[in-house]
Amino acid sequence: MFWERFKRDKSAVIGLIIVVAILLMAILGPFFAPYDPNDQSLVKRRQLPNRENIFGRDAYGRDILSRIIYGDRVTVIAGFAVVIISVLIGTFLGVICGYWGGIIDNVIMRGLDLLLAFPYFFLAILIVAILGPSLFNAIIAVAISTIPQFARVVRGLTLSIKQLQYIEAAKAMGASNLRIIIEHILPNMLGTIIVLATVGIAHAVIGVAALGFLGMGAKPPTAEWGLMLSEGRAYITSFPHIIMIPGIFLAIFVLGVNLVGDGLRDTLDPRLK
Description:
- The protein has helices at 2-6, 10-32, 64-100, 102-116, 120-131, 135-161, 165-172, 177-213, 225-232, 241-268.
- The chain is mostly helical.
- It has a single domain, classed as MetI-like (MetI-like fold, Orthogonal Bundle).
- The radius of gyration is 22 Å and the shape is elongated.
- The N and C termini lie close together (10 Å).
- The relative contact order is 0.17.
């Protein structure tokens, strides 16, 4: 039933095809990459796209197609890592605050409100500045910046669900708080969490790439899309292919994830059944 409803949304299916293609390139691409992503050829620097190098070469003479393929793995894994951390911690904090409330709720939510007081990307930059620039620290910084959004949504869902009659019935039958949370509350918010996580992947990928663009993420010679954008910005007018190719791939992936997220939202919305 889920697939039947999902495939009616043509844009969501197109988004799914894009995401699957990008994921397959991340998994299998390095086996088919034409060159080593770090091999330099100074005589071929800034070479335009041609039959030998489909996307041309960058300022150091490295094959852009090979770096796109290897950079796909780095960027996508970083995006998924951010979302996994954010969802796990945000769901944990949100359920605790929503279910038990009281002083626990006040302390945790005021701390999250403090994080929300900072603009999302400014907070990520601040965290990286404290931890030091690296891809791992960029992942941690973006994850911390997005935890409050997940926690607040999960808290609101928990407050709503715990008022329902079947929760009261489970308590009357002697079910423990842990069992109620695992068997009744979490399953009933799973659809919303999946949609939030899907859309969050796009924001996470952009966040990690943006930090890489600013020199606060992955370090050279790592093939990462944000870093590739940073390395190509000096040639945006003279050799635009160096910056346009990774930018296009980044935009396509984000578009695909957003289309899938919109499709999942419509498919999992019980009001549309």
